[in-house]
Design a protein that fits this description.
about 130 residues; alpha+beta; 3 helices; 6-stranded antiparallel sheet; two-stranded antiparallel ribbon
Amino acid sequence: MPYTCPKCDRELTSESQRHYCARISLDDLFKGKPDELLLLFDKLLAEVADWPDVLVGTTPNCITFVHRQTFFVIRPMQKVLDLKFYSATQLTEPPVIKSTATAGRFENHIRLSHTGELRPQLFAGIRDSYELL
């Protein structure tokens, strides 16, 4: 059962989970960004938020998706969304722009600017990250 921080109303996996404790709205994260980025985010959220035991939270710079650990992060930038997820092996094929070894796994980054770039392989990679962590 998730714990809700009484100060920031963020859902956490436990009362002892460390987090950035501040109320940050999605509107603030997308202020001044192209409408297409919000639409892209909505499509990603619709896919991932319904997976079992996923908690979605906001920080001053990004939206985090937590299962047992943070498995997916979306960072709205000026013209793109930077997507970060994890894998057991290094991913080198586009659209991955960076894959870095960290803590026995690989941190992968993809940048998207419109919904037409969404592919089933991306959702499969995010799901693998969910299951890995």
